[in-house]
Amino acid sequence: MGHTGYHFHNYFKTTEQLRHKYQTYGHHVENATQLSVGEIHPDLDLMVDCVLGRSYDDNKHKTLSAPLEEFEGRIPIAYGIEGYTMARHLELKSLLLGDEIGHDRSWHDAKDKKHK
Predict the structure, then answer these.
(1) What's the pTM?
(2) Any residues with CB less than 8 A from the CB of 36 and at least 6 apart, and which?
(3) What's the count of helices (H) and strands (E) in the chain, helices before strands?
(4) pLDDT of residue 42
(5) For the chain, N or C: smaller number of CB within 10 Å?
(6) What are the Cα distances from residue 105, in Å, to 30, 83, 99, 116?
(7) At what angle do helices 84-97 and 42-51 cross, to 10 degrees?
(8) Cα(72)–Cα(90) distance, rounded to whole angstroms?
(9) How big is the CA angle at 20 (ends 57 and 33), to the nearest 5 degrees?
(10) pLDDT in tens, 5-53
(11) Where are the domains of the chain?
(12) Which of 77, 54, 75, 53 lies closest to 66 in space, CA to CA?
């Protein structure tokens, strides 16, 4: 059946909303509002590296090797809408590039891992 559950990180309108989620919700990261998006969680680090075209070989998590069309298992309904994944990818890239905290720090190279 493939994956049986999803944990979404990238359904937000701003990076401030994402940081607020991690600062205050169930995945509490005490200093999330001061961290780069990539430092907050290894899944977010992978997203940033993927969206910005950086190598994620050193990342704790990996991407699928097969295209989404070949994924076996359930996927979110929105992913079936033609053009959605590329549109969201471009939107994420714009959000991340415009983020005032920047991208010079990431999960896999952060010195302070207290936010694990």
Answers:
(1) 0.74
(2) 48, 99, 101, 102, 103, 104, 105, 106
(3) 4, 0
(4) 83
(5) N
(6) 17, 31, 13, 15
(7) 100
(8) 25
(9) 70
(10) 445 555 788 999 989 888 888 768 988 999 999 888 888 888 888 888 8
(11) 15-104
(12) 75
